[in-house]
Amino acid sequence: MSLELPKSKLAKALLAPAALIYKTLVKARAKAYENGIASINKVEVPVISVGNITVGGTGKTPITMFLAKQLIAQGRKIAILSRGYNRKSKSNFVVASDGTKILCSVEDCGDEPYMMALEVPQAVVICGRSRSAIARLAIDQFKCDTLLLDDGFQHILLHRDINIALLDYQDDLETEQLLPAGRLREPVSALSRATHVVITKIPSNADSLRIERIKNIVRKYAPSCSIYSCRFKLENTLKTQNKTAVAFAGIARPDQFFSDLESSDLKITLLARLAYEDHHWYDDFDIKRIRDTLEETGSDIGLTTLKDLARLESRKAEPQVAKLLEKTVGVGLQIDWIGDSLILSIK
């Protein structure tokens, strides 16, 4: 989700009344489902949701792909269901992959579904406004026996058998406010719906007391919930060794990506950083800006995320984009589990 959130105390205070209204609406919606006023659709195959209670990146996509690969290895036929945020197609749904080949452009389905289709080629990948409708499509047309909801924690309309919530180590759940004054999509009490919680982005110098406080918050609302911890590491590649680079990214927290690049073992020297909004579609001006920055700084390469690379490659037939891609390396993420890793066994 791309959203400019208030940073000053004054801005947060001014938005507090709007956050209160938002809280009332969110609670009323949850209550409607809880009391049976709004119906929940249940399908005949297991449904696993990966989501969070905040806006911004907590690592939903890499965790979703990790679980998809794990379940495929167990012999399951997987469908990944996504909203396809910021996709350009106006269709109710788009099939990004049928589990054997990619069937659409990145513009049609959005960067995240397209990347997941590339990274997990055996998975059916569908994006659409209604998760219930595309769940039905995955079961009836593609004969999938397990459904993975990417960013599905708030999609209460579809029953889920496993409900995974990701929490960013850096977020202070005790003081964070609801939208639009803060980053919370829902009150922290919504964690009561979680069957599993993963605390993500834990630094190497993590404060053990902070981790324990997060776990205590989880246990308060979901006492039987299984809790896991992990950090994300940038994939090492020989293409970056001892190189100077311009880093650019259109993701929820680009500054974190830039910091990770500098603190990683990729052996690079960043000479410039260009940040764009989440899911940003690069236009001609952006392409020229990045290429000019590469030239002006004398950098060896450009570095970006796999999501950004997918958006750029959709324009690779254009000469200026092709020239940029020749010098650009996409950096992926690896999950480093701390303690037990999240292993799902579906019956």
Put the structure in a nutshell.
The protein is an alpha/beta fold and 347 residues long. The protein has 10 helices and 13 strands.
Mean pLDDT: 92
Tell me the fraction of residues in β-strands, as a range: 15-25%
Major sheet attributes: 9 strands, mixed
Question: What is the succession of H and E elements?
Answer: HEHEEHHEHEEEHEEHEHEHHEE
Helix percent band: 25-40%
- What value does the Rg take, in angstroms? 20 Å
Low-pLDDT stretches are: none
Question: What is the number of helical segments per DSSP (H or I, 4+ residues)?
Answer: 10
CATH classification class of the domain at 47-76 and 145-232: Alpha Beta
Q: Do you know the CATH topology of the domain at 47-76 and 145-232?
A: Rossmann fold
Question: Any idea what the shape is?
Answer: globular
Assign the CATH architecture of the domain at 47-76 and 145-232.
3-Layer(aba) Sandwich
Terminal CA distance reads 33 Å
Number of strands: 13
Q: What structural category do the secondary elements indicate?
A: alpha/beta
The largest beta-sheet arranges its strands as 3-4-2-5-1-6-7-8-13
